[in-house]
Amino acid sequence: MTRREEYESRTEAFLLPVLAEHNFELWDVEYVKEAGTWYLRAYIDKEGGIAVDDCEVISRILSDWLDQTDFIEDSYILEVSSPGLGRPLKKERDFERSLGEEVEIRLYKALNKQKEFTGILKAYDKETVTIETAEGELVFNRPDIALIRLAFDF
Question: Ribosome maturation factor RimP C-terminal domain: from which residue to which, for each copy (predicted)?
Answer without folding.
Answer: 89-154
